[in-house]
């Protein structure tokens, strides 16, 4: 029963590894897609969902290896986020996995600060867990980042905790002064 997820896991790690080696997976992708506004939003594989009772919609942003152009170009990766993020969030928060419901994947234009378009996962979680999640995102020893399933753990450790949880919000200080090399590395260090 483990074989299918193990197979998908090895694909994920390969996909994540190849994505991290370059900021754009092909020159045609990087030249044809220049704005976040032209990128589609992705719905869950099983179709649109409605909000569970007593839930709140939150957004989780991912780091550069899972940038949005990469996700669009690699459907396996979006399928993996839809599958594994609810598992990781639920386990991290001590919930059943059906208490975390994926709503969509969407682009967030972080080009000015991070030099890539961030992938956002929008998900419904129990409203009384929002503040716990906000704390755990900044706690590297939290269960959230130490899932027993290595594929889920890999995904959870590609979360960018600097992206605010409130849907529609961007990184603080989006002022785009071209100061050069302030990139993804500095954002991951933010507390
Ligand atoms: C994304 O941000 C960059 C840098 O601030 C800007 O030039 C570009 O127009 C933005 N794209 C969209 C769709 O807002
Ligand atoms: C971080 O997570 C660990 C493990 O759950 C916990 O023991 C610790 O209290 C947390 N630290 C903070 C500051 O919340």
TrEMBL record:
The keyword Signal applies. GO terms for molecular function: osmosensor activity. Keywords: Signal. Residues 167-191 are annotated as: Disordered. Residues 176-191 have a biased composition (Low complexity). GO terms for cellular component: cell surface; extracellular region; plasma membrane; site of polarized growth. Residues 1-19 form the signal peptide. InterPro entries: MSB2. GO terms for biological process: establishment of cell polarity; fungal-type cell wall organization; hyperosmotic response; osmosensory signaling pathway via Sho1 osmosensor; signal transduction involved in filamentous growth. It comes from the Eukaryota. This is FAS1 domain-containing protein. It comes from Oidiodendron maius (strain Zn).
């Amino acid at each position: 029963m483990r074989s299918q997820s193990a197979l998908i896991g090895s694909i994920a790690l390969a996909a994540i590894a190849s994505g991290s080696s370059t900021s754009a997976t092909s020159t045609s992708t990087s030249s044809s897609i220049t704005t976040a506004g032209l990128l589609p939003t992705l719905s869950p594989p099983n179709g649109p969902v409605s909000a569970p009772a007593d839930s709140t919609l939150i957004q989780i942003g991912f780091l550069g290896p899972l940038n949005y152009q990469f996700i669009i170009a690699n459907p396996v990766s979006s399928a993996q986020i839809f599958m594994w993020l609810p598992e990781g969030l639920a386990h991290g928060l001590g919930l059943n996995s059906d208490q975390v419901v994926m709503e969509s994947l969407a682009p967030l234009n972080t080009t000015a600060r991070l030099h890539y378009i961030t992938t956002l996962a929008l998900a419904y979680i129990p409203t009384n867990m929002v503040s716990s999640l906000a704390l755990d995102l900044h706690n590297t020893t939290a269960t959230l980042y130490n899932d027993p399933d290595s594929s889920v753990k890999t995904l959870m450790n590609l979360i960018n905790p600097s992206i605010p949880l409130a849907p529609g919000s961007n990184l603080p200080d989006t002022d785009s002064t071209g100061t050069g090399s302030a990139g993804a590395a500095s954002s991951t260090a933010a507390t």
